[in-house]
Amino acid sequence: MDPVTVSGPMPPGPPASLDVRGLAYAYPDGHQALFGIDLTVDRGERVALLGPNGAGKTTLVLHLNGILAAGAGTVHVAGLPVDAENMAEVRRRVGIVFQDPDDQLFMPTVREDVAFGPAAAGLRGAQLRARVDTALDRVGMGSFADRPPHHLSFGQRRRVAVATVLAMEPEVLVLDEPSSNLDPASRRELADILRSLDVTVLMVTHDLPYALELCPRSVVLSGGVIAADGRTQDLLCDSELMGRHRLELPFGFDPRSVAAPVG
Ligand SMILES: Nc1ncnc2c1ncn2[C@@H]1O[C@H](COP(=O)(O)OP(=O)(O)OP(=O)(O)O)[C@@H](O)[C@H]1O
C-alpha cells in the first residue's frame, strides 16, 4: 500500500498558559503601573519575574487571575480570556501563592484548608478526600493533615499554602517570593517540590540564585515595562542589565558556576 501523504497546515498546538497582550494599568489614584506588557508563557515553562521594588510585578500578577482588571490590553489563561464572565474558571486555572502563607490559611486544620477551594467548587466525599490527599502528598505534608495550620513552622505553612492552590489542579502556579523566610533546607525542599510539579510556574522573586536554580527563563520588569526576557543565566551574567535595573547578585555569587535548569 502506498504511504499516505498528509498535507495542509499543522493543527494548532495547545494555547499558551499565559498570553498577555498590550496590558496597561493605572491605579485609581492615577499612578500608571504597567505600560503595554506583552508576555507569553508556554505550558510547562518555569519563568521568574524579576525587577526592582515598584517595578509592577505584583500589579501584573494580580491581572492574571482577574483581581485587577486590565485598563487596556488582554490577558488569556490557556486560551480563556480573563474577564468577568470567566472569572470562576480563570481563578481555578491560575493559583496564586502569596508571600505570607497566613493570608491563605484560616481553617482549623490543614485538611480543611486544602479542601476549602475544591469543596467551594463542588467536590464532595471520596473525590474531595483524594484531591486533598494528593495535594498534600505533592508537597510532602500528608502526615500533617489533621494539625492546625497555626501550629506549623513557617516553611511548613508555605508548603500547605502551595497545597491549597494545587488542590484546585491549576494550569498556572504563581508564587510571590516563595523562598522568603525559608532556611536553606526548606528552600531546597520547596525547589524540589516545584520542579516535580506538572504545571506552568511563574515566580516573582528578588532571590536571583533561586530564580537561576529553578527557572530556565526570566523576565525583567522595570518601570512598568518588560526590560528583558531570556535565559535566566544569560540575564544574570549581563552585569550592565543587572545594574540598570537594580538587580544585585549576592556577594561572590557567580551565575556561571550554577548548572542552569532545563525544561
Ligand atoms: N493600590 C495602589 N495604588 C496606587 N499605586 C499603587 C498601588 N499598589 C501599587 N502601586 C504602585 O504601583 C507601582 C508598582 O507596584 P507593584 O506592587 O506592582 O511593584 P512590585 O514590582 O511588585 O514591587 P515589590 O518588589 O516592591 O513588591 C509602584 O509604584 C507602586 O507604588
Automatic annotation (TrEMBL):
Q: What keywords appear on the UniProt entry? A: ATP-binding, Nucleotide-binding, Transport
Source species, domain of life: Bacteria
Q: Does the keyword Nucleotide-binding apply?
A: yes
Give a single Pfam family match.
ABC_tran
Alphabetized GO MF terms: ATP binding
User: Taking every annotated instance into account, which residue ranges of this chain make up the domain ABC transporter?
Assistant: 18-248
Q: Which family does it belong to?
A: Belongs to the ABC transporter superfamily.
- This protein is called Energy-coupling factor ABC transporter ATP-binding protein
Q: Which organism is it from?
A: Streptomyces meridianus
